[in-house]
Amino acid sequence: MLDLNVALQVGLVSSLCLAFSDIAATRLFRNSSLYASLPYSLQGTLKISLTACAYSAFASILCIYTMGTDENINKDHLRGYSRLAEVNLIAALGYLFADLYLMNREDPKWNDVLIRVHHIVVIWVITVALAYESCCYFVIYCLMAEISTPFLTSRIIMKHLNLGSELSRFVNGIMLITIFPLCRIVPIPYYFWQVSAEFGRADFRLSYFVIFSWIFGPVILDLINIWWYSLMIKATITVFSQKQKLNNQYT
């Protein structure tokens, strides 16, 4: 079980994320006639995307700073624990609960199940790390995948509000299909190499539940990320194929 103080901090972060979603979206999009004409569900999607973009930018900086400076988690990948690492996990957990609430509010029919499964798995892994004060290094390592999220969420906002030039959208797309695998797929082998190295420690002692979460949680997330990237590649091929056909028609 989570410590009461930690649970209250998670609740506070969730409340801040929900407030940001409504207040920031209202202020940023209020002058957009296109936003006002969008269906309620798409307005909700833009609010979710804006919140995700802000959180992921913050989380990326915080995770990189933590991984680079936190001696506790870097010296002991299993039991290393610090206030800085805790802040990373609390922020992520609070955001994920808020995002799940927003998705259920805007899309009660659960049309996008996979993103919910992703969030629930991450919540499970983070909660175990906080409750047992273990494996924080590995959880934060996985959270650095958020570096790619601003490129995806900004793309959604640009698309629905018709923002940016064709060149800026093209650059955004190239950045997304480049950074997404670098953050979410390329690190997979190194993650599990580090995990396997920990099993050789003489003082290796973790409960089976923590071991299960530590290994199988990331496996599920990795499979989801690989599937998402395959969809990105298919979409990219489709776009370029359509442009090639149009070019051929006019030549």
From TrEMBL:
Q: What is the lineage of its organism?
A: Eukaryota, Metazoa, Chordata, Tunicata, Ascidiacea
Can the keyword Transmembrane be found in this entry's annotation? yes
Q: Which GO terms describe its cellular component?
A: endoplasmic reticulum; membrane
Bilayer topology annotation: Multi-pass membrane protein
Q: Which UniProt keywords apply?
A: Membrane, Transmembrane, Transmembrane helix
Extract the PROSITE patterns matched here.
TLC
Keyword Transmembrane helix attributed: yes
Q: What is this protein called?
A: Transmembrane protein 56-B
Which gene is annotated as encoding this protein in its UniProt record? Tlcd4-003
